Structures are given as C-alpha cells and as structure tokens.
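Task card 7
Instruction: Convert sequence to structure tokens.
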Amino acid sequence: MTPSAYDGETEAARLKALLAYRILDTPPEQAFDDLVELAAAVCYTPVAAIALVDDRRSWLKAKRGIDLSELPRDSALSAEALQQPDVFVVRDALADERYHESSVVLAGFRFFAGMPLVSPEGHALGTVCVLDERPRDLSPTQKDALRAIARQAMSQLELRRVSEAESLARYRFRALVEQLPGGVYIENLGASSGSYFSPQIERLTGYSAEEWASEDDFFSQVLHPEDRDRVLGAFAQAHEARRPIQIEYRVVAKDGRVVWIQDNAAVARDDEGQPLHLQGFMADVTARKQNDLELNEERSRLLERERAQNERLRGLDRLKDEFVALVSHELRTPLTSIRGYLELVLDDAEQLTSEHKEFLQIVDRNVDRLLHLVSDLLLVAQADAGKLSFDWTAVALSPLVAQCVLAAQPAAEEADVELVFDSEPTEPIVGDPERLAQLLDNLISNAIKFTPAGGQVDVRVDASADPAVIEVRDTGFGIAAADQEQLFERFFRTRSATEMAIAGTGLGLSIAKAIVDAHGGSISVESAEGVGTTFRVELPLAPTPQFALVA
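Output:
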C-alpha cells in the first residue's frame, strides 16, 4: 500500500496506525524539535514543523517559527501532502485558487513543502513540512534532505513505540518475578555480576537490589572465600559455552550470616536463537545444607524428617498437578468461547476487509495452538495424577492409523515432506481409539516437523501377531544419543530442536508414552544424527487386567 492509495478503508487503517503510536497531544520532545530545526536550516525557511494528521486536525508535534499548535484538517496543506508519494511542493499558494481558503494562506504563508511520514506498514501519518511567506522552490538537494529528515522522524516514532512496549514488558516482568520466593537476576554475557536483581535478594542476603547491581565485582565480594574460585570459574565457563548452570555456594550476608544459595541460571535467547543474557533464580537452601551436615549425628531423626518432607513434596506435587489441571480447564473454557465467536465472525467473512479477515485467521490459528497446548497440559496432569480416562473397545488398528496419516497429509505437503503409509494384515486390538489417535498424531507430526524439505516419513502398522507394531520412521535431523534417554520426560526438548528454534513444548512424547503405558505396551526409539529417527510402538492385542481396569 502506498500513501497515494487514499480511500475510506485506507483512511480508517491509517488513523488506527497513527493512534497506535500514542503520540498525539504529547509534550515536546527534543529529538523531534532537533529535526524541525534541521529542516528549517537546510531549506532556508523561517518555519518548519512535524505535523500529524488525525480525523479532524493537523497537530504539530514539533514546530519552529510558528505559534499555532494545530490547524483544521480540511484547510491544512499537510493533510493534502499525505496523499502524495513524495515531496509535495506548493510554490505560491496565492497563485492557485484551490488554496486561497487554506489555513496556511490565512496565516500569511505562500510557500509550502511537505514530505509524508510513512510507517513501515505503508501508512502516511503526517508530514515534515517547511513554510515561507514568499513564493519559492526547493532544490533537488533540499528535497533529498527533507526526505532524509522524514525518514529520521519516522524512525524516532518507531523507537518511541518500541521503548513504550519495552517499558510495559519490563513492568510486567518485574511484577511477576517480585512475587517469587527467591531472587531473580539478569546478568549480561561476559559480566561477573548481575545488572538486575529482584527485591527478594535483600531478604536473602541483607544487601539491597541496588547494592547488588552497584559494582561489577559485587558478586565476588559477597561470595564465601572458600567458594569464590569454584563459583566464579563455573560461571565463566557457563558464559563462554552459553549453557545453563546449576550450582550451590555460600554468600556472606550483610549481617555476617553465612547463607547457602541454590542458583539455577540459563541463557535467554531471541526469536532467532541468538543469546541475549543469563537469567537465573537464587533460592535460600541454608536449612537443607545444615540438615545435610547434621545427618551423621542425628540420622534416625533426620530420616523421619526426610520421610515427612517427601510426603509433603508428594502432596505439593499432587497439588501442582491439580493446579495445572484446574488452570488448563479454566483456560479451555474462555478459549473455546473465543473460538466459537471467531467461527461466527468468519462465517460472515465476505463482510470483512481482506486485512481484517487475515487478522482474524491469525487469531484463529493461535487459538488452535493454545487449545492444543491446554489439552496437552491437562492430559499430562491427569496422567500424573492417575486420572487419565480410557474408553476400551475393539480397535481396527490399520484404518485408525490410515485416518491419522490422512489428517497429517496437509502438514506434510506444506513442509514438502513425502508421507507414506503401509499396513500388513491386522487383527483388532483392545484399546481406546481416541487416545491411540492422540499417540499417532504426536508421533507423525513430530516426524514431519523434524524432517527437512524433500525428506520422507514412513508409517507402518502390523497387527498380524501379538503384540501389534506401529513404526514411524523419518529421514530427518536425528536425535543425539545424549538426548535419547530423556525424550519421554515432560517438557524435555532436544538440543537440536532448541538450536533450530523448532516450535514445541516438550509434552508430545511424554503424552505418547503415558498412552502406550496405559495400554500395557512399550515405546522405543532408534536414531542417528543426520540419518533419521524411528519410533516403534508395541501394543498387546488385549491389555493385561491391570491396564484394562483403568477408568
């Protein structure tokens, strides 16, 4: 879209874009004032301004040589300049009858030149303009300068918007972390101490967050002398290798107490996977360390305490699972409602603009992703709590697998991956068809996701003997041997998935294993990096009684 594409629909979008910058009626800012001074100096005019045009006026964000703060839109030449693709020049407004009633002419000006301020999305928000009381023109060099000043003004608007967004994000981040029981910190890569600490750090050590961030070597100063070299060396290695660190050490608190700290930190990365900084969490584990030191002298008492502690932890774990299940359920209800209303709106899509339709389709896709994530979280919580329900029946395995392969075909085509299905003669098995479909969907979608374009995914089923066998084989990136043991753990993601920034939560394979286990079967993996991966599922034709009784 260009600034000349000027109609009702474009104007509505332009006004929406302008309001999103939250710039109208704001106080003067030096960066914009400097640009106005530069425009006047370069163009040799007594008056210059940055004018932002809304639905009723041309408002001056910055100005030089004029006392007005706004002009009526209908009579402002800056509004007409919005419709131009380049520098708009009126050499002598008195010589053109169209401009005799213009607020510019009424204010005593005859010359006007303006360059539109065009957002990255193509919306003309206003102009950088210069005015004079006598007729004149701009040289090619002056026009180039006006274009450059307009680009710089637009850059300042973008920086201002980004800065406000970052401020809001920082506020929300701090509001969250300051509710945690331990201290959260951010440390620049290569630094020896943090640049940000949450207020809880004062409760842990007696030193305020400001004191912790006051000196580059403050961390070294408060470390216990016996731990200093070990801890600083470990953090230096973590910084250099860009890897997580989990470490315990002692600090000397402000009142002289020795405090044991459990420190867990990891490298935060941007959307492209580039490292940003180290972020960590410090918890006071002094009581636990003291208990460890007294273990030999009070073994029996501490064993009893440990049993009580374990029971408490199990209770907390159950509460955690119940909490996850509750939150997942509460999230699903509004998401389902959102999805329903989206479908109603999209049913009348012919009444929407193409841009609005695209926005709604993006929302629809993201609601799908959230619903899928919530379902996965709920299923994992139910599995951990032993409350995963199954509807046992006779299942024709081959048609079920064929349906899952067919459902995955669009994703495979989009990824340019060939999806092949092969089935041996099959006998029916006893199982839950919905849960088995979840298992297959996870395995097939994973195989497609981790196979590069031009690769192949083979799905084979053989239920001619007991146990029945399902294999999903791909020609993808493969899985490192060090990662294979943890594949079926909740939230685990392989190193290659993280490095390649492949989307995922690390729940799919843990869900698959829970379903296979409930059917009395087994799941295994064979993989080699750069060659591909095969997941093999074995399911008994009829589950043993202990599994058949799962309700």
